[in-house]
Amino acid sequence: MIVGATRLEQDLREQGYDFASIISDGSSSYVLLAEFEIPAGSFAGRIIDLAIPAPNDYPRACLSAIHIRSNPHLVPFASIEGLRNAIPSALGPEWQYWSYSFHVRANNTTLELMSQINAVFRKN
What we know:
21% of the residues lie in helices and 35% in strands. The protein is α+β, with helices and mostly antiparallel strands.
C-alpha cells in the first residue's frame, strides 16, 4: 500500500489535479498544488499555491492545516476565533499556515480532505 506524500499526490492526480507535486521544508512533506484556483467564497477566482501537509502514514492520518502562498497574502497574520488562525509557515515568509481541523474517513480520505479544504475558502 502506498502511503504518505506519494499517496496524497497520486490521489490528487486521480482527482484531476495533474499539477500536484511533492515538496519538503526539510523535515515534513507536502503536496503542492501550484496555481490552485480558489473555487468559492470571498477569494473565489484567486490563484494561489496550496501546500497540503502529508504525514508519513497518510491516509491513515491527516494533519490539521493548509499552507497558502499568495501575493499579497489573502489575510493578515492573525488568530480570529471561530474563523481562522493564519500564522507564519515553515515553508518560508511568503507562506501562511492556516490551522483547521480536518476530519476524514479512511475509505475516501483525499476526496473528503479536498472537500473540506474548499469549504475553508467558502467560509472566508
